[in-house]
Design goal:
Blueprint lengths: L8 E3 L9 H7 L4 E4 L6 H8 L4 E3 L17 E5 L2 E5 L17 E3 L7 E5 L2 E5 L12
Parallel strand pairs: 1-2, 2-3, 5-6, 6-8
Antiparallel strand pairs: 4-5, 7-8
């Protein structure tokens, strides 16, 4: 990681439309929000953007109405770290460390998890949908 001002980055996935109020509240105070998965429409992105800037990636069940800008994986620099955001980790087509990324964020395949793989932080965040709140 490069040195830089630390940022509080909120990460949420699978909101599937209106996010649970608890999920929105948990993101308050974030300086940036990453959303690597289905939203089912622009409303959730608009709501999240009232909290902080949002970097979204369109998910597998998102409708065409979701902006074309969120169709593809995104690369961004936050707090001095390069972050790669994509929907499906299985479709990662680069070697993150060799490409200069410190963090890779994708939607969880089953349960939320985070870990380190070859010096790169992998984050698969919790769902923001009310029906997924039984998960840890």
């Amino acid at each position: 990681m490069k040195s830089g001002k630390p940022l509080l980055i909120g990460v949420i996935s699978d909101t599937h439309g209106p996010a649970a109020p608890e999920a929105i509240e948990a993101l308050r105070g974030s300086e940036h929000i990453i959303h690597p998965s289905p939203t089912l429409g622009p409303e959730i992105l608009e709501k999240l953007s009232t909290i902080a800037p949002v970097t979204p990636v369109r998910g597998n069940i998102d409708k065409v109405s979701v902006s074309e800008a969120v169709l593809k994986p995104n690369a961004l620099e936050l707090g001095g770290s390069s972050i790669y955001v994509l929907h499906d980790l299985a479709q990662l087509d680069l070697k993150p460390k060799a490409a200069g990324f410190a963090v890779v964020v994708s939607r969880p395949q089953s349960r939320p998890q985070a870990g380190n793989a070859g010096g790169v932080l992998l984050s698969q965040p919790r769902s923001g949908a009310r029906d997924d709140f039984s998960l840890p």
